[in-house]
């Protein structure tokens, strides 16, 4: 016989067929009595369940589901009751009396009292007062909040009262990110040890959900806290699933495997818009992408040997303002961000509607005006059209950006073109985030650093208090967080004054002045305010609400309001019986099919849903084909066996 | 002979591993970026805090001999340090929890790829120039040239997002840990199908192409001609004379490939969100988790060395010529 392989192929095929048959019934797993699970996809992994050591947005949502803050965030980020249900300011404004909820318990049944709140806040206060100073509580992201709020001491005279003393009379104490953890579990930890303490699931909390399980890199599962004091939300469980890249996550959202996707790009986002069961949200991020100009020496007159900016022109506000005018910010938003984002101006992002101001003297995109401004400020061009600085040296700027964002290389190309129109050559190079973080450090951070760059293209994201964004422009921040090396005593005064402001009106006025000062002096060119591109399905959950309502996203904002507002989309149907039946039937189907079964109320689905509902006949046909293939293969292998024996006879 | 041959090969492997351990130390200390800055991605960082962390992690001591001796001692004792990204977890634990998912994916993928690839390759080689060969070689070439994620993405779009037969990604459905064993097994198998298919397809291409050329080479060997001249049936010549000889180079290639595939499946793991060593490596790179990277590199290089050792030893058994 010619083909000896047929018998073996047949057996392989039969083997594969068997495997398929094994898998097929599993394609419709019987998940009877399933809890209602909200599945959230995130491209950001969870780094830690320890609230003191997590650095990531996902980590913040994880600990806030489990632990309450003393005061929570409302629909528009206003202070609303949290661990404390009411509070009162003393007459002098410098101390606050918080009333801790009566009858509240931890999820293990232990009473939750003011002692827990005092213990948790004291950790932060101890850190601030320690030798290592602010930023020494765990990863150092939580205690600065207490410092900004000028908290000096806490005291708990009884189980339901917590007295917080502050140095100033601002209201920032109501917006501090300090989770209240149970003292009966963590009471032996100090501010030095808590950051390394093992917060292993399951954790005991007072939040709406408590973390039950965490599979590193895969998912974190939260179960409803039955003893939660607030609204018991519709999902029984919340699962945050981690994806390594956005494409599979978007596919999972389309397939109905997840209900919410955090973080996509513009193209994926546009693609999702055609799905009737999916809503996309471009939430304003509390941050920006900037060109940070190296202004080392501004206000100090210092220079760096073998480092610092390559031209003194960068120390001149007039020069920097011309660079800002040469950049078409709207084009960046349209072409780089696909329209999802906002043109950048001042240093308090517009998402903080209460504090953001637009510049009084805007610098519109105008290359001709930019050239005129450069000429007027004493920066002529040579015969070849190259722009010269005041030392008569050709201006060649070096820009660096991290590899962490696919948009940066595109931005860099645009900027190169626009600066070229001014006669300024710009080199753009990519560096690793860690390398870049060190590249921009000046000698103030250590002898080996020399801030040898001209422009850094990167971004920042901020907390809820507008004070944070001001921190990177102070003289003190040179050597740690400053990436513009900018120093201006007048700005430092404003930065201090806005913290000390007695009223919000006063603070607003000072912040407006500070925002305009940085805009006019232009140590930064804020290119755009990024957007958070999130998307969610409406067929399994209703009640999605953006926070803040005007320009936020439902989840991954501040607090955990978005999770607790979710409702059953079928609950509104007048005759609950059939729809309840439909949703009860859904789990016994393939998970993807539940997308079709559930939205009986929301009309017929799109092409996607009809294809999933039609898959049953396909499955049957394929099953039959496989059985046929096995039968044929079996028959052939029998025949082959017979002929094998013939062969062996030779 | 064989005793000495084996001892010699094992000694070579040990020397290589020692060299890897040393290189690992140097490599990660030459990388840009100070670990303490990575550890403390913190805008409020003070110089005091940096110093304190440097002391905590032993980074204030000189690279040689203190840090080096500490590193060698700890590595010899199986202590690879602590992960920066997964705060407080030991590197050994982190790697172990990602090792088994990779094995669960790669071992079946290798088995399928070896069976199908060698079969397709020998068929194509034996029937060189036939229609079947053209189809098999063409398909193999296409598969061989495609990275795993290029094979994987269409699989996801068609079979997961489109037809909904399989889940798009992950290894398990979260929240099933209390379900029955059978349910969990089915759930795992459903998740396994697509990544397994992607990696198998990718490997089949390579194996089949190499097997094809190995068979073509043996076709013209004297012993094959002799076997033919004896009047043996065509299939018997292939099965008993050509195939075993063509397998010789394949054994080496497969063994070495086993070492590399652990690292090579990175893109497949990332696309399918498979919680294995590949995704761990990508994560560790992104977060500059040097201790974990160091551990993964050590594991991967040791795997390659051991796989090579295995190849040498098996080859020695299969082909008496190399032993002498």
Keywords:
heterodimer, A: 650 residues, Dipeptide-binding Protein, domain 1, Dipeptide-binding Protein, domain 3, six-stranded mixed beta sheet, 33% helix, disordered N terminus, disordered C terminus, B: mainly alpha, MetI-like fold, 2 domains, 13 helices
Tell me the fraction of residues in β-strands of chain B, as a range.
under 5%
* Gross morphology of chain A: globular
Global mean pLDDT of chain B: 81
Rg of chain A, alpha carbons: 30 Å
> Based on the structure given, which CATH architecture of the domain at 287-530 in chain A is correct?
Roll
> How would you name the CATH homologous superfamily of the domain at 287-530 in chain A?
Dipeptide-binding Protein, Domain 3
- Proportion of residues in β-strands of chain A: 15-25%
**Separation of the first and last Cα atoms of chain A:** 12 Å
CATH topology of the domain at 287-530 in chain A, by name, is Dipeptide-binding Protein, domain 3
Tally of separate helices of chain A: 20
Which residues of chain A sit in consecutive blocks of at least 5 with pLDDT less than 50? 1-32, 573-617, 638-650
Please identify the top-level CATH class of the largest domain in chain B: Mainly Alpha
In N-to-C order, the SSE pattern of chain B is HHHHHHHHHHHHH
The largest sheet of chain A, given as strand count, sense and whether it forms a barrel, is:
7 strands, mixed
Helix content of chain A: 25-40%
Rg estimate of chain B, integer Å: 24 Å
Give the N-terminus to C-terminus distance of chain B in angstroms: 7 Å
How would you describe the overall organization of this protein?
The complex is a heterodimer of chains A (650) and B (324). Chain A is an alpha+beta fold and 650 residues long. Among the domains of chain A are: 68-195, Dipeptide-binding Protein, domain 1 (Alpha-Beta Complex), CATH 3.90.76; 287-530, Dipeptide-binding Protein, Domain 3 (Dipeptide-binding Protein, domain 3, Roll); 612-649. Chain A contains 20 helices and 19 strands. Chain A has helices at 5-26, 57-66, 114-129, 143-148, 183-186, 246-254, 266-272, 317-325, 329-336, 367-376, 407-420, 433-439, 467-470, 489-500, 504-521, 561-564, 576-585, 594-597, 607-613, 615-649, and strands at 37-42, 71-73, 79-81, 84-89, 95-100, 151-158, 161-166, 209-215, 219-224, 237-242, 260-262, 278-284, 287-293, 342-343, 396-402, 425-431, 455-461, 524-529, 531-537. In chain A, the strands form four sheets. Chain A has a seven-stranded mixed β-sheet, with helices on both faces. A six-stranded mixed β-sheet of chain A has the order 14-18-13-17-15-16, with helices on both faces. A four-stranded antiparallel β-sheet of chain A has the order 4-5-7-6. In chain A, β2 and β3 (79-81) form a beta hairpin. In chain A, α1 (5-26) packs antiparallel against α20 and α14 runs antiparallel to α15. Chain A is globular. Chain A starts with a helix and ends with a helix. In chain B, α9 (222-229) packs antiparallel against α10. Chain B is globular. Chain B has helices at residues 2-30, 35-39, 47-56, 63-76, 91-126, 131-145, 148-162, 181-219, 222-229, 234-264, 266-272, 277-286, 290-318. With 324 residues, chain B is mostly helical. The relative contact order of chain B is 0.14. Chain B has two domains: 35-79, no CATH class; 95-323, Orthogonal Bundle (MetI-like fold). Chains A and B meet through α1, β10, α6, α12 and α20 of A and α3, α5, α7, α8 and α10 of B.
